[in-house]
Specification:
By secondary structure, the protein is α/β, with parallel strands linked by helices. The chain has a single domain, classed as Rossmann fold. About 40% of the residues lie in helices and about 25% in strands. The protein has a six-stranded mixed beta sheet with strand order 1-6-5-4-2-3, sandwiched between helices.
Length: about 200
Amino acid sequence: MLSRSYAQTVVLVGLVLLLVGCGGLQEVWEGPGARVFRPQSIAVLPPMASQYDSAREDIQEVLAVALNRQGSIERVVTPENVTDIFQASKEAFDSLVFYFSRLEMTGQSDKDSAIKLGQSLNVDSFLVVRVNSWEYVRKEGDNVGRVGLSLRLIDATSGTTVWKARHERSDSYMFIKPSLKQIAKDLADEMIKYMPPQTKR
């Protein structure tokens, strides 16, 4: 009998190949309950610290807008409200700091701090974001604007990871640099389409 971890790896690889084969995301993983996950409310956490910290506000905003546009979750907490809650409540901010530190160390969602975050934000799910790229670079002889994100959907009632994905978009140019925020908008729309709760694509 196959071990559980091996079986999960096979399923993950199958999903990745399936999505890559049909022009989907670079990486995607769904937890066992992803297909029946039906959150009523969601918040986009401030993106985790990275070398692209200047992009954090823009990324948080475009993801919240993409979630609203998708329309499968009733209430999306605005980035402004999320910021206000963390500024007003030391307990909420401490939970965020602890949650991020545990995620960095273990790669796993910490149950207790995830539930506390959900309670502080008054949501039953939240999105963890890492900005992997936000830059203008030379790529294969072309000038490109490039934005890359990793997303992790958390069930704030149980602290479990429901879904994870990573993807990147780039736009080539000759003289006028494309807007990185516009590239991020297109990327956010594309990634959110694949996030539970599923809608027809």
